[in-house]
Amino acid sequence: MSRRLLTPVSLLLCCSALVTIVAAGLSQDIGFRDPSLVATLALTLAKLAWLCHWPRLARSMASVTVACLTLGLLSYLLPEYWVATARWRAIAAWLQPGTGLEDWRAPLLATLCLILLGGAQLTGRRASLGSPMLLGLAVLMWLAQLDVGIMPATRWVIDYTAAPAALVPMGCLLAAHALRLTITFIAERQLLVRPLSMALLLGGLALAFSQHLQFLEDRRLHSVLKEENDRLADNLSGEVLDHLRAMRRFVNGWRLLDSPPDAASWAVMAEPLYRDFGYFVNIALVKPDSRIRYVYPMDAANQRLLGIKISENQPAGRPAQQRALIDHQEAITDVIPLLQGQYGIIYYLPTQIATGRFIGASAMVLSLQALTDTLTETVDAQRTRLELRQASKPLAILGPGDGNRAWANTAQIHIGDHPLTLTTLPSRLRLLEYHARLPAVGLATGLGLSYLLFLVLFSHRHLAIQHRLLHGSHAQLRREIKARSRLQKEVEWLARHDELTNLANRRMLMETLKAQHDTRPLCVMICDLDHFKRINDSLGHPAGDEYLKRLGELGEAVASRAGGLFARYGGEEFIVLLPGCDTARGLQVADELKTSLQSANLQHHDGEALTMSIGLTALEQGPLDIATLMQVADEALYQAKEQGRNRIVSATMPV
């Protein structure tokens, strides 16, 4: 897609997202109360402002949205002992009465997706700030909401995914931003491919690890709630056994009396039992004819029960009444509606006095609702709903009405021969309080680390490319420096040497002389080839050049053995500089040089041998005057020429 089409397509996607949001907001089912929908709307408007070249407005809207989403994210991450869930709900109610925490914060994955998308908008198309990575993580969070793979119960505890009405515009907004980043990706793909792929892999692993932690947290929370349910059932079962033993002790206590109890003695004996087991509605003495003789406590409701025939007023308990009153056996009714208007169980215990006289049955009316209410001492009834059922029929209910049946736990208890089911249903508030923050913290931390990994890898990749380019530049520069150094050395060598003979030239000779200004004795000799012009004229200049080269090799060898310097002074003239040599030693070296030349068998065109004239002088003492030294040697050479050539003439330095 060409760059010219990117902006119109992005505008079209943003407009599609905007239309979807408005349609969902106007519907009665969703409305604009959905925080994820509102946040998506804000980011869509920020993207439109950016496309319309209003960057300040776009950044302001995106910054405010990201800040609000970050506050919502903190409610998922901060430990319960730092900021309690009840405190978050109180803040939500303070912001707008009647609202809860879920009315102000988006689901976890939607929150992360929108924060990352807002960060991508704020960083623009700058890869160095991690904009491609933020967008990639946002797409990952959006895809995770399509099928997060967690249990429905966990979805209820913490809302992970946004509604489809918010996911659709969120996807359009992601596509619009991705289109704008294609130019950056194409231009910098060498820098982005490896860091982006490795960092996104880490982000995916963080998401998978978070889901694993969530699975472990579900198991832990289910285990905690199951243990609590079993503990409550054990408490109820223990309570039933305790009050049954207490009732039997109560009945056995009448066997110590010789006469039937009166109302006062009945009240005295029943009062401790009623006080210790507060879930008894009353404790009554039923005469053999099924009429109630005494009842405790003697309140207004129980006074109306005196004298009534219970077999007629409570037919559901008639089998147990007959068994106790006729068969003189301990009996217990099924779960029946009590005369007080609630479900309960009545124990009928045959009662006799010391003489063996049967005086009736002690009836203990147990209210199941009151029995269930005793669990408030061991469970928070404000955050847990308790239900006591027989099959599917509810007998007693304790706690709030928002218990979550997906997290329900059940246990069996027996009252007599009647099995009842105790069900505990934690409220949403309790689940949020007990739910560990580790999965959400792990996910947020993993995403943060993957973003930092991208920045590190991108910077390293960028520096590696820059280093490679710089290394190439340095290599090229080193090659140029070496070439320049070589040329410089060649220039310097040519400046101090004769190009034809490779001997030291006049400049190097003068530098060496100056360097030897304190050396005594100092011998200098000037050598000149005799009739050298005839060689050039007869044999040609190339032959003359070869003769000069040969003489240079011979002279350099002789001078080197003597510890001196052999230099070409110009034309066919050569200079021998011998530091530390006096005149006698100089004459020996000069003679050796002449002998070497003769041995070389260099001849003129007519077969005559090539000869050399040498003028020599030595400075034994006194200061060095180069001009005088050279002049004296030159005069000696002149004398050698005058005396017939092919000879050595020495001259003394003037005092």
Description:
- This protein is of the alpha+beta class and 655 residues long.
- The chain has 3 domains: 3-188; 232-426, CHASE domain (Beta-Lactamase), CATH 3.30.450.350; 506-652, Reverse transcriptase/Diguanylate cyclase domain (Alpha-Beta Plaits).
- Helix content is 58%, strand content 15%.
- The strands form 3 sheets. Strands 1, 2, 3, 4, 5 and 6 form a 6-stranded antiparallel sheet that branches.
- Strand 1 and strand 2 form a beta hairpin.
- Helix 1 runs antiparallel to helix 2 (35-51), helix 5 (108-123) packs antiparallel against helix 6 and helix 6 (131-146) packs across helix 9 (189-253).
- Residues 148-155 have low confidence and may be disordered.
